[in-house]
Amino acid sequence: MNGIPKIHLAEWVDALIKWMQVHFAPFFAVIQGAIEPTTDFFERILTVLPPLPTILLLSLIIWLLSRWRIALFALLGMSFILYLGLWEASVQTIALVLTSTLLSIVIGIPLGLWVGRSDQAKKVISPLLDFMQTMPAFIYLIPAVFFFALGAVPAVIASVIFAMPPTIRMTGLGLRQVSSELKEAADAFGSTPWQRLVKVELPLAKSTILAGINQTIMLSLSMVVISSMIGAGGLGEIVLQSISRLQVGKGFEAGLAIVIIAIILDRMTQNLGEPRQQAKGATPWAGVRKWVSIVAILALLGLGVASYAKPGGAKEKVTLAYVSWDTEIASTHVIKRVLEDQGYEVDMKETEAGPMWSGVVAGDVDAHLAAWLPVTGKVFVQKYKGQYDDLGVSLKGARLGLVVPEYVPVDSIEELNANKDLFGGKIIGIDPGAGIMQNTEKALKQYGLDYSLVSGSDATMTASLAKAIEQKKPIVVVGWQPHWIFAKYDLKILKDPKGIYGEEEQIHTIARKGLKEDMPEVYRILDRFAWTKEDMESVMLDIRKGKTPDEAAEAWIKAHPEKVAAWTKE
């Protein structure tokens, strides 16, 4: 770089993260111990009753806190979400938003009061808030995964960091906007600093503070959706699936549900700060509001108590992580259906390859079925060596490499440079965290290819391939077998003389340490799980033809009872 020394900031940050993982582990455990029960409480309180009574109760509470028009919109909007089949995912999203907002308020308002009263505090905290708000939201997911693995906890932490600044800023601003004359008057009447704060400053700053909380709620909602990339679940997971699988209609439904929730939360918090105008003759409604408030509070208390009453024979929960590749969608959903038939509750977490592995290592995920070895997953095997259980091969004979249609007059990677114009100098890839993408980056260097590697997803890769084949145009993509594209199209994997992609891959099942002792039956089923390329491709083709992953998995299980029996027998 022209003799200019490079600042190794990335290495320093990585070293700091590793140091914090070791020395701050008890602190992170305390945080996790506080966030998990809070999120779980909100989920329980919203699911202990059937959806329709819960929606009615929430609408009554919204009516109490705001206006009847907003309550009516909430009733209709949440009912619409229910009949879209998105109520459970919406509850998860609302629980994450409420948890992150609660933490943002608990931390943000005291800091905002400090900023509002101290010029020195404002000088120190304001640059930090600028940094928190301008840093890209996706960046917060990386350390969150390192410290808390997958799930709700890292999602809430990332949301709090991203969404808390408006609460701090607006609280400080509201306090500073209180006129000095009023403060002096309060002091003249003998108020203590605490009395002046509680009885004068906070009431006058209420609308500004609530505006900050409103912004925090909206930012929390947006961050919670992004956090689906680290297994947070909820509506964000459906959006992520829609993007990775190019399901426009499904994505529109989830997006519409997010919009409805955002409007409800926005209008409700906006109205909290507005004084209600009560006309003459409207006094009967005050009595109704009073009684409804009592009923709503009692109902909430009852829900809170009932949500922790565990019914007898509750199912054990198994958590499986997977990446949004057609192969892993097929295998993971088959195992999900098998475990459910054995009486287990299965929680699925769709994420990227890195968080999937780290989730198993941290113990937040019980297993994943997506270890392509020895080449593709080599980086994760080296990184987490000895921190997981390898249950062996679930599928043999997998192959990876650069793939072209059969009609393309290129047979080897070495021939690509000479045909750069034919392919437009582009190799169509999948998600950037995948091992095959890292291998392709190596191939670009080893073969000296003057090509750009285009990141995307499994779905965008297959869509590009299908479009090119339809138009009989040349295209080169990263690909692997088994995959439904090999069953549908005439394709060939380019020869790899340097062996960058390896000769043959095997797919392994990876389990967390301690699973054998905690859930011996689950461990046994995962350990015995094995099938063929033809089995996997048949499930993938069914999904491609329009079946849901669960329906395709169920159909395969019914057609192959002898294989399932071999996995599940004692």
From TrEMBL:
Source domain of life: Bacteria
Presence of keyword Electron transport: no
Location within or outside the cell: Cell membrane; Membrane
PROSITE patterns attached to this UniProt entry: ABC_TM1
CDD domains (UniProt xref): PBP2_OpuAC_like (cd13639), TM_PBP2 (cd06261)
Family matches, as SUPFAM superfamilies: MetI-like, Periplasmic binding protein-like II
Membrane spanning residue stretches: 45-65, 70-87, 93-116, 137-164, 217-240, 252-270, 290-309
InterPro entries found in the cross-reference section: ABC_Gly_betaine_transp_sub-bd, MetI-like, MetI-like_sf
Pfam families, per database record: BPD_transp_1, OpuAC
Keywords, alphabetical: Cell membrane, Membrane, Transmembrane, Transmembrane helix, Transport
Stretches assigned to the ABC transmembrane type-1 domain: 90-269
Major localization class: membrane
Topology with respect to the bilayer: Multi-pass membrane protein
Similarity-based family: Belongs to the binding-protein-dependent transport system permease family. In the C-terminal section; belongs to the OsmX family.
Protein name (Swiss-Prot/TrEMBL): Glycine betaine/proline transport system substrate-binding protein
Species per Swiss-Prot/TrEMBL record: Laceyella sediminis
